Batch of 2 targets.
Target 1
Amino acid sequence: MTVTFTQSRINQELAKEGLIPLPRDAYNFILDVEGYPAAIINLMVVIGLFVLRRQAPDVPRPFRIWLPLALFFMAGQAFLIVAPFLYPLGGKGDTSLPYWLSLVIGMVVLVAGVIYWFIWWVLLPRIGKFEYVERKTKLNDGTVMVQFHKEQIRYTHGVHGF
């Protein structure tokens, strides 16, 4: 909920400053396009939380979320995923555009992101015979920065991981 509010405020402020021309329809449409993939990702995150609780209950965590709150959040995200499929009263959404258009574009963007991830993190390393190795660097202010570096895969004893 906080991310959705923040993103909408960023778009609104950018429009106020004249950096992006957003008539009312465009502003509402951008919020709708952002909201659908965000609801899917949020649902996956809360499902992952339940999976981790079940499969790794003893892993130390900085905090534990109250179970009824997580279930309520999950139900809210499920509603946000299903609601765009419902035909709106009068056949019109909150813009002059077809009510289903933001859903379709949001899904296309989400699927494009998955394809990009697959190419960048799975396919290219297999083709190039390398792997991404995580390196953590501590900045002067104490912030830990994570960077990924390519490292060639070294085969030993004829064993190939693929």
Target 2
Amino acid sequence: MNVNRKFGRFKQWAGERMGGEVKTGVSDDFKSLEQEMICRHEGMERLHKSMTGYIKSISKTKEAEEKDRSLPVGHLGTIMIAHGEQFDQESEFGSCLVSAYYRVIEFYENIDADEMRVEGMGRAHESIARVQERYVARATSSWLESLERSLAQMKEYTAARKKLEARRLAYDASLSKVQKAKREDFRVEEELRSQKAKYEESNEDVIRRMQDIQEAEIESVADLGTFLEAELEYHDRCREVLLRLKRDWPTA
């Protein structure tokens, strides 16, 4: 029976392609929603790809001499410190690289102030690396994960849409069978009623999923706003580190 149904769907599909079978249509509203879903899906995939590339670029680490991995800005700071410590304590250049002064910067909730020491150019860059690591974590948990949830929702919609098409073909195949029957057949009519009920069920499911995707915009806007706040805070903290460094920078 299952093989016969699959053959019936294939026969219906082939007949529609050849123009010999009638296809059950959908409303203009459904078509409009469907086009919107296609646009959303394509855009969401591009957004996710670009955001993944962005996160990867700002979180890419470099292997230091001690085999520890750090962000490029942190590695730069480590090299500055290592070279600065090779100079005498009286060396202004060495001090600027390492420990011209000691200052505490408070930043980010739940982060100890002692964690953000600025001791010359090297320490400043190590501090910026820690700021960047936290920014990567916030950007990932807000916008990137939001995009992943949206894509998962879109994947479920796509599967439901394929199921609807399969049931539509089965329904049209049953309808064609009834119309071509030379006499009434209870089994054929019962199959038609069953296929129609399944088709209508899937149609309602697809519409509901499309509406859910539209309504999910509210969460997407909130997640995008969180990403914006994280990016602003990241640049503000980096600027704060460098401004504090510059404030006590030795004048010529």
